[in-house]
């Protein structure tokens, strides 16, 4: 058996005769029905539980051997299932109980399917570490992961502590650097006495596949992977030894993606990355960036919801109300005037946007996949509370309108992009689709429109 990573141990699942917490028993019962021949699989478990100060939120990751169905393009693989994102105990030690009709804990557990290598008899430990890292992200940010989400990872998924020998030996690294999420094809949602739990499968993909999911639609890209067994097949099994993307295996699928983007646009409504904005003065002076104003920073934009379209609600038009109610404050209260002074919606004459390299590469997607189709796109800063939303005249309720092209609410900037300006932006920023040709930093200026965009290296 491979050595478990630091802070965990490998054990078998407790037999049915040993009492287990109600939420955990509901998961175990589901897995026993799926794998009746493996009632006591290997598990990776946190030795110091999360509720007593341990670093790993997942109590257990169960590991099963799945025979697949090679005749249908499903290879033999290892099936990993987490326990801990949902409420296992029902006593408030980790999750607040919200009733049987609501979600249990975060309402989901994570799964992963890894293709077995020839002669492999024991499941590798690194996928369990990967699931723990994703769980830490959920607990630390209070973000909800959903099917058809995507996760930019920028490193081989198996680069984990238990796999450090592979890295030190300089062995070829896998091009599977990113993840898409889908519903697990075998484990359906369950209703427990602590609430509902769904099982979300993590699918390893290459950079070209992630980009297609971002520029078009994650569900559509997953459907393509299901039709190509070497790229995932019907159950979307991750093969870390895969060397070719789905577009290299079946080149005609690239045209399918291009036509889909042209016809449907992108379902991605926003990204988080390195971005800043500030009011721009023609004389070259730059006021302190709004994102760094301590008075404004206290009113942070909600971060809980994974969908940026929901996270950033479209606000009433600036022409209807010069101030916007602050969260938790009544405009008629005694402190209303002070709050309104802080969070007043402001009109700007010109702005300077600064993007890190990776965030800037999403600008063509925002223009061609969203704005061209009358939709909005939001960039949120990964370092501050700042946000930048690009809208068109078709987006109703925006605080930016034809009379106020640049409007800010606290650290949130909205920019109205007219149809005519959209065409020029598309043309001028086209080189961002060929990032290898860029010399950074790179500045783009549209003086008559009051806009400056600077693209910076990621380390700036």
Notes on the structure:
By secondary structure, the chain is α+β, with helices and mostly antiparallel strands. Helix content is 23%, strand content 24%. It starts with 7 loop residues before the first strand and ends with a strand. Keywords: Cytoplasm, Nucleus. It comes from Exaiptasia diaphana. It is found in: Cytoplasm; Nucleus. Residues 256-455 form the Suppressor of fused C-terminal domain.
Structural class: alpha+beta
Helix fraction, binned, reads 10-25%
Distance between the termini: 44 Å
Q: What overall geometry do the principal axes of the alpha carbons give?
A: globular
Overall pLDDT score? 84
Query: Which parts are unreliable, with pLDDT below 50 for 5 consecutive residues or more?
Result: 1-7, 285-343
The main β sheet shows up as:
9 strands, mixed
Task: Please name the defining characteristics of this protein.
single chain, 460 residues, alpha+beta, nine-stranded mixed sheet, six-stranded mixed sheet, 13 helices, 19 strands, 24% strand, disordered N terminus, SUFU_C
In short:
By secondary structure, this protein is α+β, with helices and mostly antiparallel strands. The protein has 13 helices and 19 strands.
Topology, element by element:
Layout: E1 8-12, H1 22-34, E2 42-46, E3 60-66, E4 77-83, E5 103-115, H2 126-141, E6 150-152, H3 164-168, E7 178-183, E8 190-192, E9 195-205, H4 207-215, H5 218-226, H6 246-249, H7 253-264, E10 270-273, E11 275-279, H8 294-297, H9 308-311, H10 336-343, E12 345-348, E13 351-356, H11 357-360, H12 363-370, E14 377-381, E15 387-391, E16 406-409, E17 412-416, H13 419-428, E18 442-446, E19 451-456
Parallel strand pairs: 5-9, 10-14, 13-19, 15-17
Antiparallel strand pairs: 1-2, 2-3, 3-4, 4-5, 6-7, 7-9, 8-9, 11-13, 12-16, 14-15, 16-17, 18-19
Helix pairs in contact: 4-5
């Amino acid at each position: 058996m491979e050595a478990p990573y630091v802070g965990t141990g490998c054990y078998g699942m407790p037999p049915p005769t040993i009492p287990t917490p109600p939420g955990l028993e509901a998961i175990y019962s589901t897995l026993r029905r799926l794998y009746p021949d493996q009632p006591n699989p290997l598990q990776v478990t946190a030795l110091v539980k999360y509720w007593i100060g341990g670093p790993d939120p997942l109590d257990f990751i169960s590991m099963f051997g799945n025979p697949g169905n090679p005749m249908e393009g499903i290879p033999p693989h290892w099936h990993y299932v987490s326990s801990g994102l949902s409420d296992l105990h029902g006593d408030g030690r980790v999750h607040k109980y919200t009733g049987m009709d609501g979600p249990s804990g975060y309402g989901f557990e994570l799964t992963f399917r890894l293709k077995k290598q020839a002669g492999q008899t024991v499941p590798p430990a690194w996928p369990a570490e990967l699931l723990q890292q994703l769980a830490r992200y959920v607990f630390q940010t209070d973000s909800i992961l959903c099917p058809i989400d995507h996760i930019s990872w920028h490193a081989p998924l198996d680069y984990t502590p238990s796999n450090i020998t592979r890295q030190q030996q300089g062995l070829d690294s896998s091009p599977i650097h990113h993840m898409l999420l889908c519903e697990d094809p075998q484990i359906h949602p369950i209703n427990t006495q602590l609430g509902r739990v769904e099982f979300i499968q993590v699918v390893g993909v290459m950079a070209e596949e992630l980009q297609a999911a971002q520029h078009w639609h994650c569900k559509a890209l997953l459907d393509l992977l299901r039709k190509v067994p070497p790229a995932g097949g019907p159950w979307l099994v991750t093969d870390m030894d895969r060397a070719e993307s789905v577009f290299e295996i079946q080149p005609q699928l690239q045209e399918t993606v291009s036509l889909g983007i042209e016809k449907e646009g992108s379902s991605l409504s926003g990204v988080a990355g390195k971005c800043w904005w500030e009011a721009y003065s023609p004389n070259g002076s730059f006021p302190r960036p709004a994102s760094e104003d301590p008075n404004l920073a206290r009113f942070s934009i909600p971060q809980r919801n994974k969908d940026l379209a929901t996270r950033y609600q479209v606000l009433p038009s600036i022409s209807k109300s010069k101030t916007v109610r602050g969260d938790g404050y009544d405009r008629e209260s005694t402190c209303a005037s002070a709050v309104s002074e802080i969070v007043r919606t402001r009109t700007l004459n010109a702005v300077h946007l600064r993007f890190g390299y990776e965030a800037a590469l999403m600008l063509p997607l925002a223009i061609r996949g969203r704005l061209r189709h009358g939709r909005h796109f939001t960039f949120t800063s990964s370092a501050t509370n700042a946000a930048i939303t690009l809208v068109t005249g078709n987006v109703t309720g925006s605080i930016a309108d034809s009379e106020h092209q640049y409007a800010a609410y606290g650290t949130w900037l909205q920019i109205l992009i007219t149809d005519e300006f959209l065409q020029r932006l598309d043309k001028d920023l086209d080189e961002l689709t060929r990032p290898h040709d860029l010399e950074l930093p790179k500045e783009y200026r549209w003086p008559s429109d009051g806009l400056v965009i600077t693209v910076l290296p990621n380390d700036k």
